[in-house]
Amino acid sequence: MGMPIITASATTRTQAITDLIQSVALEETALSHILNAEGEKLQKIFAIEDVSAENILAANKSVESMVNSVSNLEMVLRDKIEMFHSCGCKCRK
Asked: Mean pLDDT lowest for which of 1-5, 34-38, 68-72?
C-alpha cells in the first residue's frame, strides 16, 4: 500500500481548530470504550470459577499496560487542546 496523498485545502483557522477539537473528542470516546472493554475483561476473568492466580496476574498486567497506554494518549490529547490556551486566539470564549 502506498503513502496517502494529502492535498492542502482552503480551510479556515477556525474550522481547523473545530476539526481538531472534534478529533480529540472522538479519540476520547474511543479511549473510554477501550477502558470499558478492559474492565469487562477483568470481570470475565474473575467470573471464572477455577481461575488461577497466574491467570489473574497476567490479566491484571495486560490491563495495567493498556491503562498506561491510554494514560499516555490522554496526555497527548491534553497537549493538543492546551495549544489553544496559549495561542492568544479568540477561540476560548
From this structure: 1-5
Structural domain tally of the chain?
1
Evaluate whether residue 45 is within a structural domain: yes
pTM for the model = 0.74
- 42 in a structural domain: yes
- What range does the domain containing 32 cover? 14-88
Q: How many CB atoms are located within 10 Å of the residue 71 CB?
A: 11
CA distance 62 to 24: 25
* Residue spans of beta strands (DSSP E) within 1-93: none
Question: CA 26, 27, 28: angle at the middle one, nearest 5?
Answer: 90
Q: Quick check: is 64 in a domain? A: yes
Cell 473510554 belongs to which residue?
32
Number of Cβ within a 10 Å radius of residue 42: 14
What's the average model confidence in pLDDT over 48-67? 96
